[in-house]
């Protein structure tokens, strides 16, 4: 298809959800009421030949085409050439209270939700027919009250003020402190308010469809007010007026469809009558049909004019309102218009709004868009009109299957199924690949929707061609063959998906749509017992899926993680189905299970799965018939044989669990099981005793002095125990040395196994393991320095490396999209544990790591290029200290003091001075975690460190403070500076140039009280404090923060000196 220019390719800015500034203001101004000195008489309804000319929008921008007027029906009187402006001003003084129903009566009826809307509307119509100005005033006050506004539009306001002035006056009286209004107030009295309000609008339009809708006063005036309210800054006005305008628009669309049908029918009759011969024509009927056609055209023009006013004046601006409820209302009603009147609305000009709102930030709006599209794709005749939309937004729709809102993702999968079924192209295989993995999602509704998609894609289409449904087949053999084909498809999908050990989630996803196929135990067991049924690699997956299906049918509960934290309560119908399934499972597998166990007894994985089947039987059925007892004996015999044959832990655990169940006293056959398993245990005991006797005999032959061994064993057991411990410790050391040599071999399997064994041994023989058993202290084995180095090198060389991306294994939790690198959780847990063991040492370790990175940056001659990355790392590490500032006070103080020591550390001879001062920028990332008193202390410490650093860098003084001991000075109290050199000498000799260094100034600013301002520029020279972004999210924004801090620190130093 040739791609043409379309409004779909130029979406507007969806983030700019403006509330005002509507380009419909020109229309509003043109429709404002004019003050007339003398109210004129009411204009008659007809003629209305120029109604369509009042549309303010150009025809090219009008999404609702207006039918061209019939030239033969146009009239030329000059009195009708100038269109009358819509006016809300009453023609005469009217007392609202004398007109029957009041605004409060209508509001109370809406709130109650129990009144018949037809009766309420009829009462109001009677009032309106007596005086349309008074009736309109009642309706306006009802709308104002529905917005939650306590203001009232009086008769004087109605007669002397324009719409904008009335809205402005109501806005002043609105309670701005309250965020609740009837449409969103969560009180029981108003829970039916929205539905009743929508019903009122629908009934009002329907009751006026043959008369008052064309009087050129009621609805134009009402729409003018609603359009003004929809542009208000008050959310309640905007929300309520938009909802009413959209519902009125929906009513107009319904009437337009009726009028269009009536026009087509009448026009066809007119053409038939007009095609007759002249003498056969009925002149009166012809004139009557012509008048009817003219009236239908006029009515359609009038409705199109009002619809276009709503569309351009309200919808075009409110579909992107900042309130998601308003956007959702617009999209919901647009979907109704598209389905009701596809001839006028189902085009690219209207569909683009659905496509754009698929990117909305709020889930309810996206959900409403998807549901609207579902309604469109369900109609076969709409598919052709949706081709351009499908090609433009298919990629976005497919990406939404991973939407963070699970409800949206579920509906998107259902939409993709409709696109697959209804469109000719359907979805390509790579596009379906976005949906297939969702069968393993943790959200059950999403997984079930993906299961339906998978079922229809493969089972229903590929294996059920010729429109043969799997649920409705007449031939039983065809049904079995279809089930067999379906099972092969599921097995193939399960193998290819590579999500093994999660078959329960695949079964649960398909249970709702393919429950009958998954309950076809006959076909499954036939596959397993026939030699030519399946390939070897398919037997294991089939057994796993069969056992998952048995568990699902017997327990009628979803697998772990699919319950969403809610307890599943079965209904009476579900319980009945569950009981029937258990009986069918028991009756089918009792005779076949021994055969399956015999066939797969040598395969540990398969037999461990099959041993779980009896746990879901109705075991009392073994005692219900005598012929079933032989199958019980066969089952017991197979279990005993499996125990004797296997040593795998999984198989023995499955056998033990089954034996415990069969020996339960609640079953009448438990005695038979006791006898069988007692014989099994006796045989195992005898076998063990025989092996033990042989072992002891071998030891006796080796021992040269049996009597001495017995004496030592009996009388010198403590000594033997110590000697045995020493021997064991020696063997452990020898074994560790062997494993250490294996860490450098080229074979990955041996190398990895050696590393794991070493870790287990060091943990097993650590000091913490024998802390409660002093007698085993001799077994403690601490790793040597060389072993520690090799283990650390192993981690760096083989573990913490950049590996290629691998597929995510396990259950897909698709409402999250953050993927962490390997071992991130291990490192995070290690850091957390170190904080619990020694918080101060942990903080100093963090500082040491940053210092090492900073030193590496300087060593590699990378200047400040990597400084932003180190600062970003520091910022992340600072967030790990938590929000309890009092708890982390001492660790943070230690970190800052170590950092300051490092920043002002003396450089080696021959190197540039003050290389480490830039480390203060990294240290500033931790300042926002400090308490205010600690900020002041560190500010003083930093300031005096600068003074000392400059002094010791430029003078050689005979004083007690040495450069080598400078860190000790920094960690001491400022009172130490009372010793020589004297204060006046220090103040006179210390230059202040260091205070202007960018890194120092940045760190000083970070110690100022927190605020929400951004980092400012330096006052001196206008240079930026740092080339990197602000290290602190919250800073005080003052004109001379650095100078103030310097002054404060100077005062503190003077006091200290």
From TrEMBL:
Coiled coil: 272-306
Stretch list, region Disordered: 1-99
Name used for this protein in its record: Cohesin subunit SA
Biological source species: Amphiprion ocellaris (Clown anemonefish)
Biased composition (Low complexity): 72-83
Gene: STAG3
GO cellular component terms given for this protein: chromatin; chromosome, centromeric region; cohesin complex; nucleus
Gene Ontology BP annotations: cell division; chromosome segregation; sister chromatid cohesion
Subcellular locations according to the entry: Nucleus; Chromosome; Chromosome, Centromere
One Pfam family hit: HEAT_SCC3-SA
Swiss-Prot/TrEMBL keywords: Cell cycle, Cell division, Chromosome, Chromosome partition, Coiled coil, Nucleus
Keyword hit for Zinc-finger: no
Reported function: Component of cohesin complex, a complex required for the cohesion of sister chromatids after DNA replication. The cohesin complex apparently forms a large proteinaceous ring within which sister chromatids can be trapped. At anaphase, the complex is cleaved and dissociates from chromatin, allowing sister chromatids to segregate.
Major place of residence: nucleus
Subunit structure: Part of the cohesin complex which is composed of a heterodimer between a SMC1 protein (SMC1A or SMC1B) and SMC3, which are attached via their hinge domain, and RAD21 which link them at their heads, and one STAG protein.
Any one GO molecular-function label of the UniProt entry: chromatin binding
Superkingdom per UniProt: Eukaryota
Family: Belongs to the SCC3 family.
Amino acid composition bias (Pro residues), ranges on this chain: 62-71
Start and end residues of each SCD domain: 315-400
Organism lineage string: Eukaryota, Metazoa, Chordata, Craniata, Vertebrata
């Amino acid at each position: 298809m040739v791609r043409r220019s379309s409004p779909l390719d130029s979406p507007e800015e969806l983030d700019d959800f403006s509330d005002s500034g509507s380009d419909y203001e020109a229309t509003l101004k043109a429709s404002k009421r004019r003050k007339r000195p003398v109210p004129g008489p009411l204009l008659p309804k007809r003629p209305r030949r120029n109604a369509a000319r009042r549309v303010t929008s150009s025809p090219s921008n009008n999404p609702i085409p207006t039918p061209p007027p019939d030239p033969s029906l146009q009239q030329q009187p000059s009195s009708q050439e100038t269109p009358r402006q819509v006016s809300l001003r009453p023609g005469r003084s009217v007392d609202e209270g004398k007109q029957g129903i009041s605004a409060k009566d209508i509001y109370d009826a809406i709130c109650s939700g129990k009144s018949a809307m037809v009766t309420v509307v009829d009462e109001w119509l009677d009032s309106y027919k007596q005086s349309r100005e008074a009736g309109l005033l009642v309706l306006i006050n009802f709308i104002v009250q529905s917005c939650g506004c306590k203001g009232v539009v009086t008769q004087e306001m109605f007669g002397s003020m324009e719409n904008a002035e009335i809205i402005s006056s109501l806005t002043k009286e609105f309670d701005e402190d309250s965020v609740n209004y009837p449409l969103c107030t969560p009180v029981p009295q108003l829970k039916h308010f929205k539905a009743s309000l929508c019903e009122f609008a629908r009934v009002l339009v329907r009751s006026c469809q043959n008369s008052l809708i064309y009087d050129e006063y009621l609805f134009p005036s009402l729409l003018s007010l609603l359009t003004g309210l929809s542009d208000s800054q008050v959310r309640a006005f905007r929300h309520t007026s938009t909802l009413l305008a959209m519902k009125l628009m929906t009513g107009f669309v319904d009437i337009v469809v009726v009028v269009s049908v009536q026009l087509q029918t009448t026009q066809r009759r007119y053409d038939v009558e007009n095609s007759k011969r002249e003498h056969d024509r009925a002149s009166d009927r012809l004139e009557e049909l012509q008048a009817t056609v003219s009236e239908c055209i006029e009515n359609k023009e009038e409705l199109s004019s009002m619809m276009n006013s709503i569309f351009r004046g309200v919808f075009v601006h409110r579909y992107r309102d900042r309130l998601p409820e308003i956007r959702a209302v617009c999209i919901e009603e647009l979907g109704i218009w598209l389905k009701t009147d596809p001839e006028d609305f189902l085009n690219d000009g209207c569909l683009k709004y659905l496509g754009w709102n698929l990117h909305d930030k709020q889930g309810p709006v996206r959900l409403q868009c998807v549901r609207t599209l579902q309604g469109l794709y369900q109609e076969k005749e709409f598919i052709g009109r949706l081709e351009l939309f499908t090609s433009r937004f298919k990629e976005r729709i497919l990406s939404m299957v991973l939407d963070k809102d699970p409800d949206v993702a579920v509906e998107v999968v259902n939409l993709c199924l409709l696109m697959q079924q209804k469109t000719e192209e359907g979805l390509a295989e790579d596009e379906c690949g976005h949906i297939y993995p969702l069968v393993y999602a943790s959200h059950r509704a999403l997984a079930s929707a993906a299961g339906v998609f998978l079922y229809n894609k493969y089972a229903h289409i590929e294996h059920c061609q010729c429109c043969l449904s799997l649920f409705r087949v007449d031939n039983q053999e065809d049904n079995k063959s279809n089930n067999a084909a379906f099972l092969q498809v599921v097995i193939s999908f399960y193998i290819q998906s590579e999500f093994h050990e999660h078959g329960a989630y695949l079964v649960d996803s398909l249970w709702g749509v393919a429950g009958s196929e998954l309950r076809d135990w006959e076909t499954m067991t036939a596959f397993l017992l026939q030699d030519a049924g399946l390939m070897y690699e398919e037997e294991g997956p089939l057994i796993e899926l069969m056992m998952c299906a048995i568990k699902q049918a017997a327990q009628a509960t979803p697998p772990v993680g699919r319950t969403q934290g809610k307890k599943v309560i079965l209904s009476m119908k579900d319980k009945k189905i569950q009981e029937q399934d258990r009986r069918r499972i028991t009756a089918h597998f009792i005779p076949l299970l021994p055969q399956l166990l015999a066939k797969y007894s040598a395969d540990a994985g398969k037999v461990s799965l099959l041993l779980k089947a009896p746990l879901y039987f109705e075991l009392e059925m073994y005692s219900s018939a005598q012929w079933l007892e032989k199958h019980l004996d066969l089952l017991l015999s197979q279990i005993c044989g499996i125990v004797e044959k296997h040593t795998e832990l999984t198989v023995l655990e499955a056998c033990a669990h089954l034996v415990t169940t069969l020996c339960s006293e609640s079953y009448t056959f438990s005695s038979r099981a006791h006898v069988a398993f007692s014989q099994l245990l006796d045989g195992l005991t005898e076998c063990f005793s025989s092996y033990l006797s042989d072992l002891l005999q071998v030891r006796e032959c080796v021992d040269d002095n049996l009597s001495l061994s017995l004496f030592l064993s009996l009388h010198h057991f403590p000594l033997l125990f110590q000697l045995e411990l020493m021997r064991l410790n020696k063997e452990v050391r020898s074994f560790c040395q062997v494993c250490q040599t294996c860490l450098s071999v080229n074979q990955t399997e041996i190398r990895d196994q050696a590393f794991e064994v070493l870790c287990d041994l060091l943990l097993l023989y650590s000091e913490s393991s024998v802390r409660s058993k002093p007698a085993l202290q001799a077994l403690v084995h601490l790793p040597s320095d060389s072993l520690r180095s090799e283990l650390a090198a192993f981690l760096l060389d083989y573990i913490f490396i950049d590996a290629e991306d691998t597929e995510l294994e396990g259950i897909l939790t698709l409402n999250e999209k953050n993927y962490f690198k390997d071992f991130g959780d291990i490192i995070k847990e290690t850091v957390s544990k170190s904080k619990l063991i020694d918080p101060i040492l942990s903080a100093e370790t963090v500082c040491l790591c940053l210092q090492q990175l900073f030193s590496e940056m300087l060593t590699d001659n990378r200047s400040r290029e990597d400084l932003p990355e180190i600062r970003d790392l520091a910022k992340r590490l600072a967030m790990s200290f938590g929000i309890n500032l009092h708890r982390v006070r001492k660790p943070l103080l230690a970190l800052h003091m170590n950092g300051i020591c490092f920043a002002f550390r003396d450089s080696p001879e021959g190197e540039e001075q003050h290389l480490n001062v830039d480390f203060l920028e990294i240290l500033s990332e931790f300042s926002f975690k400090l308490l205010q008193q600690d900020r002041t202390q560190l500010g003083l410490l930093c300031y005096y460190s600068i003074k000392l650093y400059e002094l010791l860098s430029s003078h050689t003084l005979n004083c007690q403070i040495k450069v080598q001991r400078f860190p000790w000075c920094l960690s001491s109290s400022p009172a130490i500076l009372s010793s020589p050199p004297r204060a006046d000498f220090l103040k006179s000799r210390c230059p202040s140039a260091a205070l202007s260094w960018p890194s120092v100034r940045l760190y000083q600013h970070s110690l100022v009280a927190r605020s929400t301002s951004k980092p400012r520029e330096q006052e001196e020279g206008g240079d930026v404090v740092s080339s990197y972004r602000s290290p602190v999210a919250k800073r005080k924004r003052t004109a001379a923060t650095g100078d103030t801090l310097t002054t404060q620190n100077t005062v503190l130093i003077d006091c200290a000196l």
